[in-house]
Amino acid sequence: MTLTVFIDGAAGTTGLEIRERLASRGDVALVTVEESRRKEPAARAEALNDADVVILCLPDDAAREAVAMIANDRTRVIDASTAHRTVSDWTYGLAELEPDQADRIAAARRVTNPGCYPTGFLALVRPLVRAGLLGTDAPLSVNAASGYSGGGKAMIAEFEGGEAVTAFRPYALALAHKHVAEMTRHAGLSVAPIFQPAVARTYRGMVVQVPLHLSQLARAATLTDLSEVLAEAYDGGRVVRFAHEAATVVKIEDDAGSDRMTLRVDGNQATGQALLIATLDNLGKGAAGAAVQNLNIMAGFDPVAGLTL
């Protein structure tokens, strides 16, 4: 079977990365719009309705507009924007979120790609909530840094054009980042975490950290207990892996250039402090890699086809 796919927004950073992962595959045929017609609504509507699967790499309003232009019950959608990540009739596209999440994605007509920061946070926190180690009302914080490619073309130009002179730039200081609602909903929390993102002077890569006092846990547990829950949750997984070995240093580039994600638990048992850490590529498992993984699952292909692990 050859699947026809239209990437709406194929010239953007995520769209280009998706094209790269699909380019050499014989089971996928890309639907394209001639450059001269690219901005014509009729041409765009035709492509949206001709494809088996549409991947939206657009700003939120444009993504909603694209969905409204699909006038058939056949075309399936993967939305890489933030427009539908907390909308109840869209399936959340983090295949590892729940034991049956991949099955939900396989059956879905509308799938919303996760955000890059929430991908790391949810992979660390959701299994602990599900296991009853973290209460739904746990007051969590998440500290994270991403490569500047996550800011799109404008930020890439800023960093690579010499305008950005900082090595590390915290932002969203009002603690109202749009990813917070996504994190809260899909972790199953009733209290929004404090989210502290930053941009680092590296093109790609991401590190997400969730610090915990063991006294925050809903029941008594050790660092080993936390590790065992996460290791079991991702046992046998091909994209998300748990690192059992202790780390002395974790780098933002650790999983850059790949579509995998690595999780670990570090900390100090004597002081009752734990540090949950995820490393991933903001453009890989945090964006394009996740979209291709979802595409594969929806089409019944090998879930990791086209991915670099």
Protein architecture, described:
By secondary structure, this protein is an alpha/beta fold. 31% of the residues lie in helices and 22% in strands. The chain contains 9 helices and 13 strands. The protein has helices at residues 13-22, 41-50, 60-69, 101-107, 116-130, 152-160, 179-187, 223-233, 284-299; strands at 3-8, 28-31, 53-56, 76-79, 91-92, 110-112, 141-147, 168-170, 194-200, 206-213, 240-242, 261-268, 273-280. Strands 8-9-7-10-13-12-11 form a 7-stranded mixed beta sheet. Strands 2-1-3-4-6-5 form a 6-stranded parallel beta sheet, with helices on both faces. Helix 1 (13-22) crosses helix 9 (284-299) and helix 4 (101-107) packs across helix 9. The longest helix is centred in the last third of the chain and has 16 residues, at 284-299. It is globular, with a radius of gyration of 19 Å. The model has no long low-confidence stretch (mean pLDDT 95).
What topology emerges from the helices and strands here?
Elements: E1 3-8, H1 13-22, E2 28-31, H2 41-50, E3 53-56, H3 60-69, E4 76-79, E5 91-92, H4 101-107, E6 110-112, H5 116-130, E7 141-147, H6 152-160, E8 168-170, H7 179-187, E9 194-200, E10 206-213, H8 223-233, E11 240-242, E12 261-268, E13 273-280, H9 284-299
